[in-house]
Amino acid sequence: MLGRSKDDWDAVGQRLADANILALAIDLPAQSDPGGAKVLSGWSADVRAAVSYLGSRQDVRPAGIGIAGASLGASLGALAAAELPAVHSLALVSPALDYRGVRIEAAMKQYGGRPALLVASSHDPYAARTVRELAKDPPGTRETRFSDAAAHGTVLLARDPDLVRALVEWFQATLR
Description:
Elements: H1 10-18, H2 37-42, H3 44-56, E1 66-70, H4 72-83, E2 89-93, E3 98-99, E4 102-103, H5 105-111, E5 116-121, H6 125-135, E6 142-147, H7 154-159, H8 161-174
Parallel strand pairs: 1-2, 2-5, 5-6
Antiparallel strand pairs: 3-4
């Protein structure tokens, strides 16, 4: 999430570890807006590199790679997952159809029938609308979750602990 640290994912990472799921959190290349959509979209290379690293590890099952992202991280995760068949599951928290010019509709179509969990606060109109839009007529499993906590991105995970549990259960169910 732009302006936030990977440390926001510590609770999720610990819960995934407790469920015997290896997790790797990464920081975005910058903490502030770097400019245009081309630069932001290019940051998905960092997500692809993280997936490549996990795929090279002996302790990671080939069907055991998923991506979770929040806000801009959700957009970057969707872009990376679309290009990487090694990604078997996706969880997008507070996604945006268009985040400062980074559009994800085509990426989600390319992602295809692989499962995706779509999460937003009911008090976050754009993210909630994005979740509903991405869940329409999907080529595969699209599960939606709406929280009553008034928050966005990783802050939503901190304010609604049930969502952390939902992410862990999602990856347990979809990364076999």
